[in-house]
Amino acid sequence: MTGLDRYAPLAEEAVAAVQRREAQYPALIEAGKLPADQAAREIRVWRAIAADWRWVVTLERVEAAPATLSEKVEALEDSTRRAERAMRKAFAAADKSVRDAWAQDMPMAEMASRYGDATTAFFAEWERYWCFADLLAWYRRDLPDSDRPGIAYFVDKEARPDRAARVAA
User: Fold this and answer.
1) Among 90, 146, 77, which residue's Cα sits nearest to residue 120?
2) 18, 43 in Cβ contact below 8 A?
3) Are the C-beta atoms of 87 and 35 separated by less than 8 Å?
């Protein structure tokens, strides 16, 4: 295993968040719906988040403009709120059979098997929401009032045996 590859979905969502912003923001700026400086700041912060999580998953650092912890937390709070709204909207638009199965606590795997494509949009938004919520929870661990170790603790713990093996060789 290289790094904490079980966190690959979080890293992938961070990269996707950058790509969505890079694709959508020029039109929003042109339409006057988003100030250019805000767009540039958001993209910078998300590139820093994506670089952090690439490091978590691969143990490789990539260059990215720096962003503060508070900027990252703010970006993730905003994205988590947006993702929750999108998830609720996708649920409301889902087939009634999916909504009924959800209300009856049917496992997601069974719902996917039973209702197939009718679950796709809602489950995609569900996954995106939880990726943002997980990312936010990890960054909040680095806040001064947290008593839980942040992701760097776990990356260091993971990398330590690898470094020891290289030194021994």
Assistant:
1) 90
2) yes
3) no
- With b meaning 16 or more CB within 10 Å and e meaning fewer, what string describes 71-98? bbbebbeebbeebeebbeebbeebeeeb
CA gap 110, 97 in Å, rounded: 12
- From residue 147, alpha-carbon distances to 20, 71, 76, 141, 142 in Å are 34, 20, 20, 7, 9
Instruction: Determine contact, residues 37/25, Cβ cutoff 8 Å.
Output: no
* Tens-digit pLDDT profile for residues 106-163: 999 999 999 999 999 999 999 999 999 999 999 999 999 999 999 989 888 887 765 5
H or E segment and range at residue 140? helix 120-140
Identity of the amino acid at 75: A
The pTM of the full predicted model, rounded to 2 decimals, is 0.89
Higher per-residue pLDDT: 122 or 4: 122
Are 3 and 56 within 8 A, CB to CB? yes
